[in-house]
Design a protein that fits this description.
Length: 298
């Protein structure tokens, strides 16, 4: 057997396993939460990494899904997805007890710096899952006295039953009290934004809610903030602009169509700015998490 290629960090970390469906919850607006018994993926998954699923034996192309939660001891992973196309429509028909082929975990995840304990996590739509995973990991991380704030935006019903938060968040506009109950139970403050008129939600884009909160911080408090975001490209572009506005470090998880998801086809390549000039990077293995400053340069 040849020695591992240490110049490519993803080599040796991606595996394939048959994963049994433990739970499959069907929610409003074609959204679904899938829990799989996948101990190999669960053992090394990190916030921002994803799995590549075979939706059905008759559909050869896999689909990449962000990982939302992991229980390493129990060996399961959980993912949120929204039906777009026939592949995910077929996945939505799969039943508890069925087995899926899963490849993962794939990609570089978020890397929170203990030097900035205030983690502003921004998730939009199907970009919500990595933010939940990140919040759960920060709860268990003893490197710093983390103070995460999770802001989520959606124009369709959120993939959970919202309720007023029990956690006060200074700087959040009055009336913006809706939260994700799971995060509230963990003691992690969260707030929701939407232009669809949902009760208790901030009326506007999630990045506008983030800006309102950041404006209430003094200079020393802002020096403790780092931003992490996942969602549609327009939201990520607005998040990168927000980070430039306040002079904050920002990491973004990109969403791109993928074929192989292991770096072979380069079909998910995006243009980034490096010290040597423009370059193309593969979202699947060079990302999906990148420094926002090298992706959104204007």
């Amino acid at each position: 057997m040849s020695a591992p290629d240490i110049t490519r960090p993803h080599r040796g970390t991606i595996g394939i396993e048959d994963a049994r469906i433990l739970a499959h919850h069907h929610l409003a607006a074609g959204q679904h939460v899938l829990r799989l018994a996948a101990p190999r993926v669960a053992s090394t998954a990190q916030p921002g990494s994803f799995a590549h699923l075979q939706c059905h034996s008759a559909i050869p192309m896999r689909r990449p899904l962000s990982i939302m939660r992991v229980d390493r001891a129990a060996g399961w992973i959980e993912m949120l997805y929204k039906v777009v196309g026939h592949g995910l429509a077929a996945l939505a028909e799969r039943q508890v007890g069925d087995t899926l082929s899963v490849m993962g975990p794939i990609g570089r995840g978020f890397n929170a710096s203990p030097a900035r304990r205030r983690v502003l996590a921004i998730g939009g739509g199907v970009g919500i899952p990595p933010m939940v995973f990140l919040a759960e990991e920060l709860r268990a991380d003893q490197r710093a006295d983390w103070q995460p704030l999770v802001l989520m935006g959606s124009e369709i019903p959120f993939p959970f039953a919202t309720r007023p938060s029990r956690i006060l968040v200074p700087g959040i506009p009055d009336g913006s009290i809706a939260c994700m109950p799971l995060l509230d139970e963990w003691g992690v403050p969260s707030r929701l934004a939407s232009r669809s008129g949902f009760a208790g939600c901030y009326d506007g884009f999630v990045t506008d809610l983030a800006r309102e909160w950041l404006r209430t911080l003094d200079a020393s408090q802002r020096d403790e903030v780092q931003i992490m975001a996942c969602g549609p490209t327009p939201m990520l572009r607005a998040t990168a602009a927000l980070a430039r506005e306040f002079g904050l470090p920002c990491q973004v998880s990109l969403e791109e169509y993928m074929a192989c998801a292991v770096g072979g086809c380069a079909g998910c390549a995006v243009r980034v700015q490096t010290e040597s000039g423009p370059a193309m990077k593969r979202v699947c293995v060079d990302g999906p998490v990148f420094d926002a400053a090298i992706v959104f340069t204007d």
